UniProtKB/TrEMBL annotation:
<dbReference type="InterPro" id="IPR036291">
    <property type="entry name" value="NAD(P)-bd_dom_sf"/>
</dbReference>
<keyword id="KW-0521">NADP</keyword>
<keyword id="KW-0560">Oxidoreductase</keyword>
<keyword id="KW-0486">Methionine biosynthesis</keyword>
<dbReference type="Pfam" id="PF00763">
    <property type="entry name" value="THF_DHG_CYH"/>
</dbReference>
<feature type="binding site">
    <location>
        <position position="232"/>
    </location>
    <ligand>
        <name>NADP(+)</name>
    </ligand>
</feature>
<keyword id="KW-0028">Amino-acid biosynthesis</keyword>
<comment type="function">
    <text>Catalyzes the oxidation of 5,10-methylenetetrahydrofolate to 5,10-methenyltetrahydrofolate and then the hydrolysis of 5,10-methenyltetrahydrofolate to 10-formyltetrahydrofolate.</text>
</comment>
<dbReference type="GO" id="GO:0005829">
    <property type="term" value="C:cytosol"/>
</dbReference>
<dbReference type="InterPro" id="IPR020630">
    <property type="entry name" value="THF_DH/CycHdrlase_cat_dom"/>
</dbReference>
<comment type="similarity">
    <text>Belongs to the tetrahydrofolate dehydrogenase/cyclohydrolase family.</text>
</comment>
<keyword id="KW-0658">Purine biosynthesis</keyword>
<dbReference type="InterPro" id="IPR046346">
    <property type="entry name" value="Aminoacid_DH-like_N_sf"/>
</dbReference>
<feature type="binding site">
    <location>
        <begin position="166"/>
        <end position="168"/>
    </location>
    <ligand>
        <name>NADP(+)</name>
    </ligand>
</feature>
<dbReference type="GO" id="GO:0006164">
    <property type="term" value="P:purine nucleotide biosynthetic process"/>
</dbReference>
<dbReference type="GO" id="GO:0035999">
    <property type="term" value="P:tetrahydrofolate interconversion"/>
</dbReference>
<keyword id="KW-0378">Hydrolase</keyword>
Length: 288
């Protein structure tokens, strides 16, 4: 079998186009421009790339982008003061504090200082609790993008066996809640899971989010399964070059799977598209 490639880049472009249409309507009809504030502390190179890309895409859909770049040595108190200012600013509908934060900061305290209604990452404990209890929440962008691709690919997910590899707060745990919400039978596997290959082998849906290049190989995949690869790992490609690979060994897995997301061009673009969709949602809720 050769898997169908799930084109996250095209899917994300479609979502952004729909967001842009609604932003244009909000502006023309109500004089409201959705605004997204992104806060980056420090010089982490990967975070800098993400933040730049977020800012560009925000402007492309017609929203206002507020970028705050703070030095590594910023105190937690200063960061909390900025968050309070953004919470109070009516032009800011969404707030994203890029993670990871420098080690001297308490990330939980910072995230939980964000107004839950502006928490477009869906990381605030209120939103985590709402999602966990099946209530209307701001949903974390990466798992939301994965769910949208799975629904588009498979239709009704009810009764499917899903295995999420990775138990992070950003991807693994919210992904499991979303799949449960769609009535999948969900397992969360992680570094202590025994016989991971056999756990993955029973899955109709595999979501890999562990950050280990090529860990999931084709012989772990049930024939015909849908594989969503959240991993973005930069590896040495020789001659001083690097390349991006996922957590799934694409060549072997795509011979067995029914459908698979590539890296790059799969989950990555969907994350930013969902961030913009969440910002639009936050803006609409703020304005009744
Ligand atoms: N760092 C890596 N992924 C994310 C994300 O989705 N949101 C934030 N705020 N930081 C991240």
């Amino acid at each position: 079998m050769t898997a169908e490639i799930i084109d996250g880049k095209a899917f994300a472009a479609d979502i952004r186009a729909r967001v842009a249409e609604q932003v244009a309507q909000l502006k023309a009809g109500h004089g409201i421009t959705p605004g997204l504030a992104v806060v980056l502390v420090g010089e982490d190179p990967a975070s800098q790339v993400y933040v730049k890309s977020k800012g560009r895409k925000t402007v492309e859909v017609g929203m206002e982008s507020f970028e705050h770049r703070l030095p590594e040595e910023t105190t937690e108190a200063d960061l909390l003061a900025l968050v309070a200012k953004l919470n109070a600013d009516p032009a800011v509908h969404g707030i994203l504090v890029q993670l990871p934060l420098p080690k001297h900061m308490n990330s939980d305290a910072v995230i939980n200082a964000i107004d839950p209604a502006k928490d477009v990452d869906g990381f605030h404990v209120s939103n985590v609790g709402l999602l966990g209890t099946g209530q209307k929440a701001m949903v974390p962008c990466t798992p939301l993008g994965c769910l949208m691709m799975l629904r588009a690919q498979l239709g009704d997910l009810s009764g499917k066996e899903a295995v999420v590899i990775g138990r992070s707060n950003i991807v693994g745990k919210p992904m499991a809640h979303l799949l449960l919400g769609d009535s999948c039978t969900v397992s969360i596997a992680h570094s202590r899971t025994r016989d991971l290959a056999n756990v993955v082998r029973r899955a109709d849906i595999v979501v890999a989010a562990v950050g280990r290049p090529g860990m999931v190989t084709g012989d772990w995949i049930k024939p015909g399964a849908t594989v969503i690869d959240v991993g973005i790992n930069r590896i040495d490609a020789g001659e001083g070059k690097t390349r991006l690979v996922g957590d799934v060994e694409f060549d072997s897995a795509s011979e067995v799977a029914g459908a698979i997301t590539p890296v790059p061009g799969g989950v990555g673009p969907m994350t930013i598209a969902c961030l913009l969709a969440n910002t639009l949602t936050a803006c609409c809720r703020a304005n009744g």
